């Protein structure tokens, strides 16, 4: 290109076609630019939307992760707490077992048992107070014992004669050691066993007491006790014939009426014995239970019978012949 052409301006074309082309080109260029701008804007908007969506998703994911971590932490704390209390309970049971030698029962059962024992203890204490009060209503203030006069007053209140065998049975129940006297401990023993803390209860208990004594397993002990109860002196081993006759009728008369009457008749007329000892007393009880009466066919004098019974049988046989 020449210097001249470089310095001169561009040639202006007056052709409408050229102008149209230029305008068209310019318009096309403008449109393309506008389209490009719009596309860029749309792309930017899309990018922004994508970014917003990504941000929202990231936030949701973060929130879900945080919630999951919190739930796991709560479960872990609960598990640790449960294990702690389990171990604590095991230690308490072991401790209770070492102390008592038995596994610890539940607190509910333990409380119920404690309440029952407490109520039972209070009731027993009240019963004992009434038994003691009843004792002192008959006891001699100076001796602190229920003496023969007190026993007579008791017999009057329960409507039983003082010579009735049931008074002897009551003494047996009390394990009384001295004839005609009851001390406080003996009184407590008998009345607690009979569940009698009033006069009316004691009166009602007498029929059951008599049934108890009449049982074969108890009657042997009662029969033996009756003899010991009449030993009123220290180191006394025997009882005079007159007292024995009364005692036999009192203790055995209702069961072995014929044998007792015959033996009492013999004791009153014989002159060899002034007293009866325990061996002879128990021997007669065995005689009543084992020997056929009145034929005596199974009595064998060669067996270990007290001599007084051999003499009694000879006397009976002589009477029969």
UniProtKB/TrEMBL annotation:
Q: Which GO terms describe its biological process?
A: protein neddylation
Any single GO molecular-function term of the entry would be: ubiquitin conjugating enzyme binding
Q: Where is the composition biased (Low complexity)?
A: 24-68
Write out the function statement from the record.
Neddylation of cullins play an essential role in the regulation of SCF-type complexes activity.
Renumbered to this chain, region (Disordered) spans 1-68
- Look up the signal peptide feature and give its range: none
Gene3D superfamilies on file:
Cullin, PONY binding domain, EF-hand
Which InterPro entries does this entry report, sorted A to Z? Answer: DCN-prot (IPR014764), DCN1-like_PONY (IPR042460), EF-hand-dom_pair (IPR011992), PONY_dom (IPR005176)
Write out the GO cellular component annotations. ubiquitin ligase complex
DCUN1 domain boundaries: 126-317
What is the name of this protein? Defective in cullin neddylation protein
